[in-house]
Amino acid sequence: MLHIILFVCVFAAPVRVQPGTHAAEVAVIARLPGDVPAGKLTQNDGEKLLRFVLVSETGDVTGPAMLGSYERRGDLLTFTPRFRLTAGERYLATLTVGATTFRAEYRVPANPPAKPATVAAVYPSADELPANLLKFYLHFSKPMREGPAIFDRIKLLDEKGEEVEDPWRRTELWNEDATRLTVWIHPGRIKEGVNLRDEIGPVLEPNRRYVLVLSEKLLDADGRLLGTVFKKTFRTTAVVRSALELKDWKLDVPKANTTQSLELRFPRPLDRALLGRSLTVLDANGELVPGKATVGEREQSWTFQPDRPWKVGDYTLSAHESLEDLAGNTLLRPFDLDLKLPAKKEAPRTLRFRVGS
Amino acid sequence: MRLTTLTVRTALLPLAFFAFVSATSGADVIKNATVGTPKLKSIDAVKFAPDGVLLIGDGPGAQLVAVDTGDVKPMPWKADAKTAKIDEKLAARIGAQAKGIEIRGMAVNPASHTAYFVVRKLDDRKTLLLTIDGAGAVSEYALEKVKHVVIPLPKGEAAPVSRITDIAWMGDRVLVGAVASEEFASKVCSIPAPLDPKATTLGFSTETYHVSHKKWETRAPMTSLVPYESNGKKYVVGAFACTPVVRYPLDDVKAGAKVKGESVIELGSGNQPRTMIAYEKGGKSFVLMNTFRFHHKSKPFGWSPYVTFRMESGLFAENEKLNDKAILRLTGDKPATDKITIVAEFEGTIHLDKLDKERALVVKEEKEGGLTLAAIPLP
Predict the structure, then answer these.
(1) Helix, strand or coil, per DSSP, at residue B44
(2) Which of B89, B124, B266 is the closest to A84 by Cβ?
(3) B182 neighbourhood in chain A, CB within 8 Å
(4) Which CATH class is domain B3-69+141-342?
């Protein structure tokens, strides 16, 4: 009997907002006398009867109705928003029956408190970087809020603590879950002979100290502040405008019948992301050797531990042509290729080594 | 496929013209389509091919998706069509405040004149398409149960692309500009039309380069693309992230080629090109380009960092003044040519497309704040 009374009381309200399994997923249900046909209604027809509107930041409720689906069953008209509501926002449902309107307000709870995102890592990790450095990889502990405003919250400070003017190429390049942002120093201020560099100068001068600063105002995907300023201090070295040379790489070869790591050291740091996927080990038959690769400190070394013991025999370490150092130089060409110099023969991209007993 | 090519030769520039290419039906643009829900990881860029076929660039998904929208009934916009606070209106339709969304792109369907907006909802990182028709109605274009084809972007030797920067319908192919997040790659993918997932040749990608001072050659990502034809030869005109406007002979965009662009215009440093549209007016052909001026604070061209340039397209036919001799818009701080002008009416333009023969549709920021959607006569 009590259930029946409650049911009648609830449905006595001509319009109500009913949360689903999540507070941001609702159904707006209105009791609708009259001659509206049963079944689905178009957005236009539905809106004439029942509007579900976001309350603006100034309290205005005259904005456009939310998109969604309308369906009438019996004397109930149900509106289901097409999109999840926004945490912390207010919404107003308005039912119009003739000259009479009925209203129901709904507030979505704000997101519960949670730990703010942190800067998990910044690459390159070295504290000495070439003055023609191309990019930083910023890794965060959780997905971040995308949008071009992020470039205003990442700054470079010079030795005087003053901001370097417009250092970034403002093209957002996130990984799929928005936990890594690649921030490019504007290539027009790195390339030789480009107006931008000629007129304004490079972003980084050699032999100076700089600080990369990530503002505490960076937002995570839920809109929470990073909360703490992150700084990376580094010194610049001279520009590096030469192709990578495989012959400069040092290889420590493991012994046969062990799973010791193959170790490779580079004379200059290489790009962290590319290094992680640009080197492969092949056996004498050209088959890929399965194993685990690890990028070492300052991205100046790479180790490879095979899943199975090494066999006596010849192996090849193969480098993909896309592998770059911190200034965009590859094995095939320097970042800025001087066309007035004689063309070089195609550089080798493989190192052969023999595992002995 | 039957192609109709409309060209207008100008009195002043007899060898230069833009080619506007259309096909007879959506079937000529896509082939072997299926009906369903394309799996998109992102919508980086949108453009329209003829007959209501929407081209969607999905960099993280490494694919081009072409959707036959069926939206071909023309609905003209009013002469003075203008909607203030368009960001608030689009956002409210999906239950968010204006600050909770980002308008990532806009393309006008030339068949219906409906504007399609790429909107990212910032809280759940979902990207969706909202439309505004000539009557001002805001709707969603849901990518569900749609007739479409999915074309994987051709894989080159280098790393995969991360983001599509622009798409251009060239009549016999689609060009897709792309950048990578990990390497300084600069790809242009060429996909033959009709877009057919069952075609044996799905296309190829090639890298674009730029040469400065006849000496320095670097890889160079393209941020915007527009087709161009001169003296019987097809080109793609593009812009780099740091302002030189370049042209590439389309014949050079072939598998395995190293495509070198020639700088034809230098707009002045500090501008990041966003969109280019080609049009004709008064017997002349032009390209309109909006840019984000990242040196706005130190060297403003107006109150807004979003600047729109009009360029006479005859400049792209230049064969002598190229690269280090490219035409400069400015000498010092003064205009060096009257063939490249800043269009004051378009100041603040963030998104731009051609609405019809006479007008552009823009999303522009207002000096007093907020975004406005407006139809503005082409200059």
Answers:
(1) coil
(2) B124
(3) 182, 271, 273-274, 322
(4) mainly beta
